[in-house]
Design goal:
Blueprint lengths: L2 E10 L2 E11 L4 E5 L6 H8 L7 E6 L2 E2 L5 H6 L2 E3 L12 H7 L9 H5 L3 H20 L15 H13 L5 E5 L7 H16 L3 E5 L3 H7 L2 E6 L2 E6 L1 H5 L2 H8 L5 H5 L1
Parallel strand pairs: 3-8, 3-9, 6-7, 7-8
Antiparallel strand pairs: 1-2, 1-4, 4-5, 9-10
Length: 259
């Protein structure tokens, strides 16, 4: 398994945001985390990606205990992440945004740049060439030299995925990649995620679009009030009476309405 989450718990004061959550993700697997609003999905993502440190439990990346590592250390070890809110540089070009994500793969240092050594130019050309390949992965190569702020909303979402790929991760955490997208844009993101999995990259997905989740996921984890309600295949989750109660009972969840 590329990712193993074991009995993770985190509390904010008296509130247990995550309570004893465990799961594992294999290479090339699309693993989705869903649940009603306030279930703890993004909090769990923040623990896995090093933004929050869990009060209990363990996170392993390729067999290594990374529970207390910061996001930059996790990136070095092969984990990348996108965020629910767009984090692109709108006044930079599309390709420059992806080049920013290549910094972990660059060898030249600040001194080399200040001295304008030939190696800097060679590296910049190599970085741009690699960035163009990642843009090709998400269908944005023809937009490489326009300003990122001129992309469509769906294009910006795919750009964030391309930048996450620039570090050549083994696992990518995608936080609502289709949020706010129309049907065509969602279909484009669907194809991008499936291509990543086909290349052996594990994808962990938090998403409100249930049609997308049910269509592309290998396994689904359902959270409710910080605890695991069920983990299983899309069919098992779809047929679960516990899931129906959580979504359609007194605590109606908006994401079902959007499915």
């Amino acid at each position: 398994m590329i990712l193993s989450v074991q009995d993770i718990g985190i509390a904010f004061g008296a509130l247990k945001a995550i309570d004893g959550v465990s799961f594992a993700v294999a290479e090339g697997q699309i693993f989705s985390i869903i649940g009603p609003n306030g279930a703890g999905k993004t909090t769990l993502f923040n623990v896995i990606s090093g933004i929050y440190v869990a009060n209990s439990g363990r996170v392993e990346l390729a067999g290594e205990d990374v529970t207390k590592l910061a996001p930059d250390a996790l990136a070095v070890r092969g984990m990348s992440r996108t965020f629910q809110n767009l984090q692109i540089f709108q006044r930079m070009t599309v390709v420059q945004n992806v080049m920013v994500g290549r910094h972990l793969k660059e060898k030249c240092n600040l001194l080399s740049d200040m001295l304008r050594l030939p190696s800097v130019g060679r590296q910049n050309r190599a970085t741009r060439a690699a960035a163009l390949e990642f843009l090709d992965e998400v269908g944005l190569r023809d937009k490489a030299d326009i300003l990122a702020g001129d992309l469509s909303y769906g294009g910006c979402k795919r750009l964030e995925i391309a930048r996450a790929l620039a570090a050549e991760p083994r696992i990518v955490l995608l936080d609502e990649p289709a949020a706010g997208c129309n049907a065509v844009e969602t279909e484009d993101i669907d194809h991008v995620i499936c291509r990543l999995a086909d290349k052996g990259i594990a994808v962990v997905l938090v998403e409100h679009d249930m049609k997308l989740v049910m269509k592309i996921s290998n396994r689904i984890l359902v959270l409710d009030r910080g605890k695991v309600l069920i983990e299983g295949t899309p069919q098992e989750v779809r047929e679960s009476s516990a899931v129906h109660d959580a979504y359609l009972g007194t605590r109606r969840a908006p994401e079902v309405q959007r499915a």
